[in-house]
């Protein structure tokens, strides 16, 4: 199974600033996903990031707020832009290695003051 | 993707079997039933999945009703480490882009 790491593991940021979260996978994968988990809630998909194409965003998420890069098959970044306290969440990346299984990173816990 | 219904929470005693139910009355013929769990302060991890037949792996068993409108995740001997939120997810793998739609899940507590 794929091993996924995320950086940073947690951060405290001021409103109006931006944070870039990195996701590194130990194998080459085509499909990567970014999720958000707000406090006490379940996971919500932000976007799908496939290498070589633009990220596909889910309803309610826009590229200006959550720009994503996918420069190669083992790496992706998610930026949370112009942050507000409502962006305080855990952000998780995942990959689909097998046709039926997703593997998740440990998450980045973001607090916006 | 069709919707699933799970109890908000369940309790179990350590070393006893646990049966976690999931209702999915609007399941379509091409929907697979996936289970993931999320341990505290961790990302979700895959548990098991199936289509029609019961499935077993080293983590758990999945029992699927004959009409496929419900399923049950079975942990044969619960340990304290099994305390987690368990998510039952339907996914149409035929032409799917791969995204998982998470519901609220069942929070399992395991008592020593």
Could you walk me through the main structural features you see in this protein, from its secondary elements to its overall organization?
The complex is a heterodimer of chains A (113) and B (112). By secondary structure, chain A is mostly beta strands. Chain A is 0% helix and 55% strand. In chain A, strands 2, 4, 5, 6, 9, 10 and 11 form a seven-stranded mixed sheet that branches. In chain A, 34% of the residues are buried. The model of chain A has no long low-confidence stretch (mean pLDDT 94). Chain B has 112 residues and is mostly beta strands. Chain B is globular. The A-B interface holds A 4, 31, 33, 42-45, 48, 56, 58, 92, 94, 96, 99-107 and B 32, 34, 36, 41-46, 49, 87, 93, 97-105.
Structural class of chain A: mainly beta
Low-confidence runs of at least 5 consecutive residues of chain A: none
Q: Shape of chain B, please?
A: globular
Mean pLDDT of chain A: 94
Number of strands of chain A: 11
**Which class of secondary structure composition applies to the elements of chain B?**
mainly beta
Low-confidence stretches of chain B: none
Chain pair forming the biggest interface: A-B, 22 and 21 residues
Oligomer: heterodimer
Task: Give the SSE string of chain B.
Answer: EEEEEEEEE
Please work out how many helical segments of chain B DSSP would assign.
0
Q: How are the strands of the biggest sheet of chain B laid out side by side?
A: 1-9-8-3-4
Name the helicity range of chain A: under 10%
Strand-residue proportion of chain A: over 45%
User: Nearest-angstrom radius of gyration of chain A?
Assistant: 13 Å
| Percentage of residues assigned to helices of chain B | under 10%
Q: What proportion of the residues of chain B form beta strands (DSSP E)? A: over 45%
User: How large is the count of helical segments of chain A?
Assistant: 0
* Radius of gyration of chain B, in angstroms, nearest whole number: 13 Å
Please provide the ordered H/E string of secondary-structure elements of chain A. EEEEEEEEEEE
